[in-house]
Amino acid sequence: MVSRFTLLTTGGAVLALAALSACSPVDDTAAPTSSATASADACPAGALPTRTAGKLTIGTDNPAYAPWFSDNDPKNGKGFESAVAYQVAQRLGYSPGNVTWTSVTFNNAIAPGPKAFDFDINQFSITPERRNAVDFSSPYYLVRQTVITTKGSKIAGAKTIAELKNAKLGAQVGTTSYTALTEVIKPTQQPSVYNNNDDAKAALENGTVDGIVVDLPTAFYMTGAELKDGVIVGQLPQVGVPEQFGLVLDKGSALTQCVSTAVDQLRQDGTLAVLEKTWLADTGGAPELT
Q: pLDDT (tens digit, 9 = 90+) per residue, 101-134?
């Protein structure tokens, strides 16, 4: 099966960015929820109060999944979130050589307490509950949750949420995918919970579950490049405030405003839109579930 993703080389991504940044539209739906612009004096380039002077430490999970990262190597600058992280670092005055990556599990990153990173990027949806334990930057991506399965499954042809009610479904623990599963679909069977999307995908492949819930770009990648006979059933309805991804920082971090300002700049000058075009699939082919 041909993947829906065309992953460019680092050089290709840079060329695409240079060619498109001047003309890419600004996504108004991803406007910051609460971020005043920080002054240059408040955010001295390359001299922020980071964990290590002169260095910026960025956290993410291991494994780091495509299309957010490539080859499980956050350091290579490939994949949407790796590229976003390096662009934020650049706006803060840190060259790639002054960026250090550290492995942090999803749940540990959003748990209360001191952090082993300056910021973490790992598809963290911004929620009021999580804000009690951590800070979030301005949003860098607007996301939808999606149900996927394999050809021949009992839900492969489902067009409504009602048709999913009696299915055995699963999702990664602690994620908004799991929240969407339990609060939007509300299946009659107890949902299965997995430590990561690899475990969820394995359960789908071996028939333990009929389908799993993941974010839309991950759905495109899994069905197009990883699953044999993978099928996107459809996108779940957006309920309430649009779901957005933000960078995670320690609660009360002195860096929060500076990082948010960097993200805002990337949105306003079209860079985020360019990175989406470069690394993430088109949303075509993912019908709406009603």
A: 999 999 999 999 999 999 999 999 999 999 999 9
Query: What total of structural domains would you count in the chain?
Result: 2
C-alpha distance from residue 178 to each of 135, 170, 281 (Å):
22, 7, 22
The reported pTM is: 0.75
- Per-residue model confidence (pLDDT) at position 91: 98
Considering the domain architecture, whether residues 224 and 177 belong to the same structural domain is answered as: yes
219 found inside a domain: yes
Closest residue by Cα to residue 26 from 128, 142, 134: 142
CATH number of the domain enclosing 35? 3.40.190.10
**26 and 123, same domain (yes or no):** yes
20-59 burial string, b = 16+ CB within 10 Å, else e?
Answer: bbeebeeeeebebeebeebeeeebeeeebebbeeeebbbb
User: How does strand 211-215 pair with strand 230-235?
Assistant: unpaired
**Residues 110 and 156 grouped into a single domain:** no
Structure tokens at 73: 């190597």
Q: Which residues contact 33 (CB under 8 A, 6 or more apart)?
A: 126, 138, 139, 244
- Residue 58 inside a domain? The answer is yes
> For residue 136, is it within any domain?
yes
Among candidates 92, 95, 112, 94, which has minimal Cα distance to 43? 92
How buried is residue 7: exposed, middle or buried, by Cβ count under 10 Å (0-12/13-18/19+)? Answer: middle
Taking Cα atoms as reference points, which of 184, 143, 111 lies closest to residue 283? 143
User: 217 lies in a domain?
Assistant: yes
Q: Tell me which residue range forms the domain holding 210.
A: 145-235
In this structure, the answer to whether residues 53 and 195 fall within a common structural domain is no
Distance CA 263, CA 272 (A): 8
Residues 6+ apart with CB under 8 A from 35: 137, 138, 257, 260, 261, 263, 264
